[in-house]
Description:
The chain is α+β, with helices and mostly antiparallel strands. The chain has 15 helices and 14 strands. The radius of gyration is 23 Å and the shape is globular. This is Insulinase family protein.
Amino acid sequence: MTTNTYNNDKIKEKLFYKETDGGLKVYFMPKEGYTKKYAILSTNYGSIDNIFIPIGEKDTIEVPEGIAHFLEHKLFEEPDENIFDKFSKMGAYVNAYTNFSQTAYLFYSTDNFYENLELLIHFVQNPYFTDENVEKEKGIIAQEIKMYEDNPSWKVFFNCLKGMYEEHPVKIDIAGTVESIQSINKELLYKCYNTFYNPSNMVLFIVGDLSFDEILRVVDKTEKKDYEKTEDIHRVYPNEPKKIKEKFIEEKMTTSAPLFYIGFKDYSLGLMGEEEVKKGIITNLILDIIFGPSSIFYNEMYEEGLIDSSFGGYFTGKSTYGHSLISGESKDPKLVYDRIMRLIDRPVDAILKEEDFNRIKSKTIGSFLMGLNSVEFIANNFIDLYFDNFLLTDYLNVLESISYRDIINRFNEHFTKENVVLSVINPL
Length: 428
């Protein structure tokens, strides 16, 4: 298959693309003169993908919560040498993460890049699961889960999600529960692996001062050839009611000051590509205008001692879920919540002024252009947007197209008293 090239003169970046015979999509952004090189191999598979039809089967199965994260841990297991040691010996830093919608394996290095790339592809495509190493991992991950359960910042976040969502698995901890991981076995891990780690469900993105021909040579040499290309994997998500589950969730834990999350559940779902990305940008612009460090609200609350510099908000979402989260530390979280409710009750043009929109939009454009100087920023944002059927190189075009009217319309749709949840952790 021929190599495709995407040029974006506005951001002065180029993107090379080729799909391998096995279906793996390989993207490369050249960065001449950069010493750091970054590679990320990701699968369109996250913690919410627990009900699906395995490849080669006809019936839907439901797997234990936390299995995607468990699988990520187990892929680092090799019968002989430790994967981390192998990368370290070649001067590379390696890591991985699982979130709600994807699992990614990455490394960066200044030297031995192609050797490290070969190792990355090899270990991700050669799982080694045994009854013994799966049982051993359960104890390790159970400890990790308990550690997070004892973390007030983690708890206040997931309590907010549990308040917003009745059925959707986004409310479940990415690592699962101590109980759910007990039913994971090597057969289930291989079933999930064979379904979601099919190359046609994966993407490899590389950025740095490198040769695309050499990248493709390494991929061709290392990639397993016995995969069959698959059509879209059939995933099942439960029907999520529009309404929120619980308005207010409060707990006590060991913490120096009360912590809070205020969540606005998104009703505008089912979008993909440019529409979804645009919605996310618009919502984050609104949150920055109203609650960012330069906003009147932030500064008034800060002066009163009701919030500190930890206060802030962001929107996140995919086609099946979405929410805006405003969080921080406060001596009186309920008063912060009341102030926000009073704020969103005001006329929208009093909250969102056009001059503030223009200023924040310009700032966001500047931040994005600055981000293009960072290989980490480029790689991680490329992967996140890619599974929304969107290329990072088109991001600036969408950002620049957003109008003041878009902001007003989205605010009226999303920030209401009906779809809001308050989660608080108070000190013991």
